[in-house]
Design goal:
With about 230 residues, the protein is α/β, with parallel strands linked by helices. Helices cover about 55% and strands about 10% of the residues. It is built from 13 helices and six strands. The protein has a six-stranded parallel sheet with strand order 2-1-3-4-5-6, with helices on both faces. Strand 4, helix 4 and strand 5 (about 100-105) form a beta-alpha-beta unit. The chain is elongated, with a radius of gyration of 26 Å. The termini are far apart. It holds the Pfam family GerE. This is LuxR C-terminal-related transcriptional regulator. Keywords: DNA-binding, Transcription, Transcription regulation.
Length: about 230
């Protein structure tokens, strides 16, 4: 017996191609579309048995928000995510949102079809290789590098962060003082404190260290008007 379903994907052409293939296999496709603000509403209004939700960015915040809305308003709809190989957190996030399954987006049509049928029957569906990869990563997590840039940034005051940004932009003491509305002697003192806190001996070294550790990018955000307003 065919499954009554909807196909949603980041790319409309992929959604339509998958929908066509499933129609040829005897399934009833109610709609094929690209996810947008109204995607969840469309599923809620049509009430399919299964929704295939394709996403290229499962790690993005809010990627699975449509699932939350669908399951809240149509709990009987089984949602199967089609996406790239995610981290264990990605798989967990999909199921936490209410998904019934997670299938690789390059899975053969037979695999997608099996997942749909199992999801409709109330089974959880995850390809074995995804589970193996998830367990392997959980048991042997990759070492995460220390966030040196964040550590160094926390050592600086907001005023010193602004000085660092200006140093990295090549401003000399006179320009720093003029731009910040302070005396040249004060600007010079700020520069010396920045160099001392960063453990470098020159402005060039400070700029290089900031760029290498990502400190410069973080500093630019902190010293921007928006960043300062958020403090």
């Amino acid at each position: 017996m065919g499954v009554r379903l909807m196909v949603l994907d980041d790319h409309r052409l992929l959604a339509e191609a998958l929908a066509s293939a499933l129609k040829l296999r005897g399934h009833r496709v109610l709609a094929a579309a690209a996810p947008a603000a109204g995607a969840a509403d469309l599923v809620v209004s049509r009430a399919p048995e299964v929704c295939l939700l394709g996403t290229a960015t499962p790690a993005e915040p809010g990627a699975f928000d449509p699932i939350v809305k669908i399951k809240r308003e149509r709990p009987q709809v089984a949602v199967v995510v089609l996406g790239p190989v995610p981290s264990p957190r990605g798989i967990a996030a999909a199921f936490a949102a209410g998904a019934s399954g997670y299938v690789r987006h390059d899975e053969r049509i037979e695999g997608v079809e099996r997942a749909m049928v199992k999801a409709r029957a109330g089974e959880a569906v995850v390809a074995p290789q995804l589970l193996q990869g998830a367990f392997a990563e959980l048991l042997n997590p990759a070492a995460q590098p220390d966030d040196e840039g964040q550590r160094l940034l926390q050592m600086l005051t907001p005023r010193e962060v602004e000085v660092l940004v200006r140093v990295a932009e090549g401003e000399d003491t006179r320009l720093i003082a003029a731009g910040m509305g302070i005396a040249p002697s004060t600007a010079r003192t700020h520069v010396q404190r920045v160099l001392m806190k960063l453990g470098v001996g020159s402005r060039l070294e400070a700029a290089a260290l900031a760029a290498r550790t990502g400190l410069l990018d973080r500093a630019a955000v902190v010293s921007s008007p928006a960043g300062q307003a958020a403090e």
